[in-house]
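cron nightly-structures :: item 1 of 1
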Amino acid sequence: MDMTQTTLIEKFPGVYEINHPFVQHKLTSLRDKNTPTREFRMLVEELGILIGYEATRDLETELVEVETPLEVAQSPTLKGKKLCVVTIMRAGNGMTEGVLKLSPSARVGHIGLYRDPQTKLPIEYYVKMPPDLDQRTIICVDPMLATGHSATAAVHKIKDMGAKEIRFICLFAAPEGLALFREEHPDVPVFAGVIDSHLDENAYIRPGVGDAGDRIYGTK
């Protein structure tokens, strides 16, 4: 039985595809055009938990003394500052709620970007971050890594604000976006639910799920 849950993609160093059966099952449900908004939103949150779990499995811990009902024990706890989850608005908000289930005390930062319909390049409209980014592990979230322009721009902004340790998580990624992201940020690991075939002429991931933000919030 193959118990591997995360696969390192040789073509893209630092990119990991999460092949856990629960992740793949939920991604298939997301793809279905008949999945209703409420269920779609719930699945995105659940996948935020599962992929966030994989992206944080190597966080540092330290031993602390804790008194159980039976005796005093040395037990591990997270070391140093807690996480900061940075959501690329608006679709990233759905995954953020899932990651926060793992670490409710995590700080949350917001980067608002929208894609110009002609150039397909990101335009920034909002940034709000907690302090001390340099002392926190940053989990940057966006369901879709399509062209890679929004993700690379967001990570550049986070770095400019002092962050040293950053991880990027998404549900669906396209090879084109991964290639750009690795070129721009070779030091930032990417954890993706699945790597799809390609981008179409409208820069949508194929087969993908359509517009994740619209499907999360029931808009068009």
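cron nightly-structures :: done
Residues 171 and 193 are 5 Å apart (CA to CA).
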